[in-house]
Amino acid sequence: MSKASAAVVPHHIAIVMDGNGRWATRRFLPRLAGHRQGVESLRRCVRACVARGVKVLTVFAFSSENWNRPQDEVSGLMELMGKALVREVPQLTNDGVRLRFVGERASLSPAMRAALEQAEAATAANVRMTLNVCFNYGGRWDIAQAAARLAERGEAITEASLHAAMDMAHVPDPDLLIRTGGEKRISNFLLWQAAYSELFFSDRLWPDFDEAALDEAIADYAGRERRFGRTSEQLQQEPPAPMRA
Asked: In what side-by-side order are the strands of the sheet with 12-16?
C-alpha cells in the first residue's frame, strides 16, 4: 500500500462476504466447502486489517434471511461457526482483536449462545481492533429492536436515542463498506449505520478476496472526498478532524 493511502486507512471497514456458494459451485464442490474457504479468507482479512491499522472490522456472517436456505447448509454453517470459534479465539487474542457478535440471539440454540458469550468474554480485554461478526442479523431488525427497546423504557425516539439503542452502538459508523461477489446492493446490512459509508463493490468472490483486494478497496477510499452534506470549499477551510480511539 502506498504511503498516501496508508495515511487515510478507514477507521471502520464493513464487509458483505458474498460468493462462497458460487466459489464452490464453480469448482463442483458442495456449497459448504465454499463457506469453509470463506473462513480462511476472513482469517486472512482480519490479520491484514490489523496490520494496516484498521480499528474496527464488521462482517456479515449470517443474515436473518439465511434461515431460508436449505436445512443442510444452515446446519453446516452453524457447525462451522462453532468450530471456528474454538480454533480462532486464541489467535485473535494473540493479535489483540476483540470479538463481538451483533444480532438476535434468542432463536439460536443454547449451546451456540453460550459459545458466542464465551468467545466474547475470552477476547474482552483486547484493544488493538474490534471484530464485529453480524450473526443472525438484519438492518431492519436492528432498527426495530432499538425502537422497541426505547418504547419499553418510555424514552423518546430520536435519531440520537435510536442510534444509542442499536446493537452497533459500541463502535462508530463504518467509513468503508465493501461487498464482494459482484452484486451491487447492501442486502439489509447496517442500513442505519451505512448512511454515509463509502461503498466499494468487488467482482471477486469472497474466498478469493485477499490482501491485494483489500488494499485496492482502501486505495479507492483514500481517493474519495467525504463531505457529509458540505461543500469541498467548506472542508478545505476546516481543521483536520481529531484521531478516533
From this structure: 97-102, 129-137, 56-63, 12-16, 176-179, 198-201
Question: Which residue type does 224 have?
Answer: R
pLDDT band of 231, cuts 50, 70, 90: low
Catalytic amino acids? 18, 66
Q: What is the tens place of the pLDDT at every residue in 81-131? A: 878 887 899 999 999 999 999 999 988 889 889 989 999 999 999 999 999
pTM summary value: 0.88
Judged against a pLDDT cut of 90, whether residue 28 lies above it is answered with: yes
Task: Show the domains of the chain with their CATH numbers.
Answer: 3-223 (3.40.1180.10)
User: Cα separation of 67 and 185, whole Å?
Assistant: 20
CA–CA dist 215, 52 (Å, integer):
9
Query: By C-alpha distance, which of 23, 48, 43 is closest to 182?
Result: 23
> 194 φ, ψ to 5°?
-90, 15
Please report the pLDDT score of residue 141 as a whole number.
94
